């Protein structure tokens, strides 16, 4: 793909999307992606942390067959080890959906896999191993497609391994284009975590977590360290997408993590969860057309710190899955009134649960377990699995389980869907 200058390409696609809702197979994906899956996903890729004494101990990309009726349905059909253990974490597709970028939070390596040639057998085609030296940032977390570009949100920095960090833009060939620091003025704390874009509004939202020193610390040690517990992000930032300039910093206490824009036409709002406050926060324009962020619901009992982690919004913005790591529970919230979400369902998935991905039609929901290697539970509670469920609107029905320990794979983390012969389509 021939890359356009970044500003021109973004402007063009913002205009193209201005009158249409963003669509994608997983509702967390960039709206700039082509080759969208609205039907049945066929393969589920799991970015997996290597674990000492489990299989080869290496981080790897694991591919699961999720084609109903297949003789290998719910089974591992391919793995590709990348060597070492560097805290494998999140992934993201390029805008043409042919390549999957995956990052490691410890050694800051980025791996680019070809998933377009044959999604059943991804191939590693490039490794970027100079992020810290070339940008000054470490801990590549979110990978978010722009036209001909990959926008990467880092979590930390090379200088002091604290939470002050920035955004990094590469072209699709993996060549560095530019860096953008997270704001430190007008209430900004410089922290980062997730990225979510609303092209029709020319808006980008970012959230905040913590730096390398904290996320690489054992969780039991961390929560007893009063000084370390002060080093978590408490902000979100609204950006002008075309100019890539921060416009407003919101106070959102307690490490707001994943961000999801409502994809329903006319629903001009986004939602996130605060990990440490156990609250859902709504980001929405008020009656004066000013963007505001406010707490709108509790997740479980905040006094018990259930630790909300990943969230997944329905494609029609009617509901939101929220995983809480400490009690291993998935909760479903009714978002018919986003100003007052209501929990309508819950199910314990396991001793711990982290990531959740649902199909575009909401009928299939997948869960994985690992949060961070040093934050996962110990002993028998260190369950590591992928579970696939059917959702009929009333109950989650378990379809299959892949035990990542029994399979010798490690710690199951981030998931992405692929399928063969997908045709590009605009909304």
Automatic annotation (TrEMBL):
InterPro entries: Haem_d1_sf, Se-bd, WD40/YVTN_repeat-like_dom_sf. SUPFAM superfamilies: C-terminal (heme d1) domain of cytochrome cd1-nitrite reductase. One of its GO terms (molecular function) is methanethiol oxidase activity. Pathway: Organosulfur degradation. It is an enzyme of class 1 (oxidoreductase). It comes from the Bacteria. It catalyses: methanethiol + O2 + H2O = hydrogen sulfide + formaldehyde + H2O2 + H(+). Pfam families: SBP56 (PF05694). Its EC number is 1.8.3.4. Keywords: Signal. Residues 1-24 form the signal peptide. The keyword Signal applies. Belongs to the selenium-binding protein family. This is Methanethiol oxidase. It comes from Methylocystis hirsuta. The lineage of its organism: Bacteria, Pseudomonadati, Pseudomonadota, Alphaproteobacteria, Hyphomicrobiales.
């Amino acid at each position: 793909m021939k890359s356009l200058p970044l500003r021109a390409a973004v402007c063009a696609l913002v205009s193209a999307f201005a009158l249409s809702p963003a669509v994608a197979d997983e509702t967390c994906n960039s709206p700039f992606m082509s080759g969208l899956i609205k039907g049945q996903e066929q393969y589920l890729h799991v970015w997996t942390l290597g674990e000492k004494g489990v299989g080869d101990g290496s981080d790897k990309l694991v591919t699961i067959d999720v084609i109903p009726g297949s003789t290998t349905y719910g089974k591992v059909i391919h793995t590709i080890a990348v060597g070492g253990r560097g805290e494998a974490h999140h992934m993201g597709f390029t805008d043409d959906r042919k390549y999957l970028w995956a990052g490691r939070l410890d050694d800051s390596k980025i791996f680019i896999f070809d998933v377009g040639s044959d999604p059943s057998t991804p191939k590693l085609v490039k490794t970027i191993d100079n992020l810290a030296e070339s940008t000054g940032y470490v801990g590549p977390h979110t990978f978010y497609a722009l036209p001909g570009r990959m926008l990467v949100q880092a979590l930390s920095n090379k200088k002091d391994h604290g939470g002050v960090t920035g955004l990094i833009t590469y072209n699709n060939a993996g060549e560095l284009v530019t860096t953008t620091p997270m704001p430190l003025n007008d209430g900004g704390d410089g922290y980062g975590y997730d990225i979510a874009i609303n092209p029709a509004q020319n808006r980008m939202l970012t959230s905040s977590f913590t730096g390398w020193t904290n996320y690489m610390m054992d969780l039991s040690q961390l929560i007893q360290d009063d000084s370390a517990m002060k080093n978590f992000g408490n902000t979100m930032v609204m950006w002008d997408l075309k100019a890539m300039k921060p416009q407003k910093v919101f106070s959102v206490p307690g490490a707001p993590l994943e961000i999801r824009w409502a994809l329903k036409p006319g629903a001009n709002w986004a939602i996130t969860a605060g990990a440490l406050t156990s609250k859902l926060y709504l980001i929405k324009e008020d009656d004066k057309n000013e963007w505001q962020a406010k707490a709108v619901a509790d997740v479980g009992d905040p006094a018990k710190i259930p630790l909300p982690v990943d969230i997944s919004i329905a494609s029609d913005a009617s509901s939101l899955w929220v995983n809480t790591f400490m009690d291993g529970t998935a909760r479903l919230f009714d978002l018919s009134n986003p100003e007052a979400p209501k929990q309508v369902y819950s199910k314990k998935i396991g001793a711990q649960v982290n990531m959740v991905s649902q199909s575009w039609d909401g009928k299939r929901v997948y869960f994985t377990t690992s949060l961070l290697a040093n934050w996962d539970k110990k002993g028998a509670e260190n369950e590591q699995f992928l579970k696939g469920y059917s959702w009929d609107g009333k109950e989650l029905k378990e379809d299959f389980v892949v035990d990542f320990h029994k399979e010798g794979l490690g710690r199951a983390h981030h998931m992405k869907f692929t399928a063969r012969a997908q045709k590009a389509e605009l909304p």
